[in-house]
Amino acid sequence: MEEKFNSFFQPQRQSKTGIVLLFLYNIGMVIKNLWVFVILFFVRKEKIEPWIIVLAIIAGLLILIVSAVLQYYHFKYYIDEENEEFVIHEGIINTSVTKIKKENIQEVNISQPFVHRFFNIYKLEIDTPGSSEKEVKISALTKQNAIDLKKYLLTETKLENTLIGDIEITENQEVEKLRSIKISTLSILKYGITANYIQSFFALVSLLIYGFSELTNLLKKVEFDTQLDYDTLESQFLAFSIPVILGIVVVVIIVGILINTVRTLIKFFNFKISENNQSFSFEYGLFNTRNSIVNKSKVQVITETQNWIQKKMKISFVKFLQIGKNEEDEKKVAAVPGINNTEKAKLISTIWNENPVFENGLKPNFRLIIIHTFQWIVLPLLLVLFIEKELFINYWFLVIVYIVLAELFILISFRNLKLFYSERFIRLKSGIWDVDNRTFEVEKLQTVKISQYFWQRKTNLGSITFYTSAGRFKMVALNFTKLKKLLNYCIYKIEIR
């Protein structure tokens, strides 16, 4: 029997409860951008007449309400069936029209943030290859509208079967699932504890610095004398013994890890993976429930990340880079945290119908260690010695610690740096603590380039760069003769596909 969907071929608006959502969103934007002035207002409100305060609040609320209503009525969306385009009209004063070709739509993600749950509405985001951010965001849709619109947009032209039959968020949808995986809360907790140590540390330090800076500015605005002498603060800090300083650093790291663990658990809570013939979906989140799809045919690179502790726990972090997705933009990359080795093998096999096995490998030449030593140790220390000689002499112990740690990191990085290849796949391994294994199919490469500097000719060394639709990946100081053979093979596979 033919499925019946809501008709999107006529312009229509979002759910009416979206007016309230837009109003709350506008309030949030005001607080986010003007929070310092709001605090200052309440701190010094005794100098302002009460009736002015009440009038300002009423006027502000009225402006936000009118703005929300106008945003709602001016936002319309529909499908242009003749041109096969999805069209969005939006804007109050400066109106805009966005048109997206149906064939260019790569992802349609449905999510239900925490606030949306109170109104039983969903947010839908449409992504296309090469875009720096989401092309279209519809903030207030009913469950059925979100499901049906996703079906329309991801259904191939003139085909009856949809690409998204496995990720519907309604209990009434009957779906034939080939495979389903659920990442346990314990696995997500293990990943949260063992991941992002450095990021957690610097994020916490940055937050402390930002908060301290904003607090100082606020105290100045309310005419408090902070009397903060940074020279005195520095001398007092350096007066601490090294164990005390290290203890403070450890405490900050531990707090950062705890914060990262809680954040990871909230973000990826109840992580479910569902698969059908052409795609698989991720559904996760405690307060902000997300539901995204990954089309198997559009996956360009699979990155497996694992550190020493995670290796002992037999868990890893897997990212799927699709067409137009950059690995650096973590918000847009489909990823699975805390997946065990068995589940990971099943997941990868659903995309490539096999787990990659590599018969050949290349390692960089040891000269790369010398280059990195000069780049990260010799050159920085020479610059410090030239600019501030006294600093170099007074803190010679820290210089020695830096040399030892930097050289250790260089050696570990060199040990992990490898290139593997087989008839169908190529894998690049790199990293110091978190080791990344990036795997991609030879046939999906856009092009491959090799290069050699004139001083590398005697040593027969060179570099190779692989270009994919999800970015480029490079490895240096490899045997140039073998690189030529690999280049010829890759170009041959690209031309005959």
Describe the protein's topology.
Elements: H1 18-43, H2 50-74, E1 76-80, E2 85-90, E3 96-101, E4 107-112, H3 114-119, E5 122-127, E6 136-141, H4 143-154, E7 179-183, H5 185-194, H6 197-221, H7 230-239, H8 242-268, E8 271-275, E9 279-284, E10 289-295, E11 299-306, H9 308-313, E12 315-322, E13 334-340, H10 341-352, E14 360-362, H11 367-387, H12 389-394, H13 396-416, E15 418-421, E16 425-430, E17 435-441, E18 447-451, E19 461-468, E20 471-479, H14 480-496
Domain YdbS-like PH: 72-153, 269-324, 415-489
InterPro entries: UCP026631, YdbS-like_PH
Protein name: YdbS-like PH domain-containing protein
Strand content: 15-25%
C-alpha Rg (nearest Å): 28 Å
Continuous helix count: 14
Q: How many beta-strand elements?
A: 20
Structure classification: alpha+beta
| Uncertain stretches | 1-5, 156-178
Strand arrangement in the largest pleated sheet: 6-5-4-10-9-8-7
User: How far do the termini sit from each other?
Assistant: 38 Å
Mean pLDDT: 78
Let me know the largest β-sheet. 7 strands, antiparallel
Helix share of residues? 40-55%
What count of structural domains?
3
Shape: globular
Protein name: YdbS-like PH domain-containing protein
Keywords: Membrane, Transmembrane, Transmembrane helix
Transmembrane segments: 20-42, 48-70, 188-212, 237-259, 368-387, 393-414
Domain YdbS-like PH: 72-153, 269-324, 415-489
Give a quick rundown of the structure.
The chain has 3 domains: 18-162, PH-domain like, CATH 2.30.29; 186-355, no CATH class; 367-414. The strands form 4 sheets. A 7-stranded antiparallel β-sheet has the order 6-5-4-10-9-8-7, sandwiched between helices. It has a 7-stranded antiparallel β-sheet with strand order 13-12-11-17-16-15-14. It contains 14 helices and 20 strands.
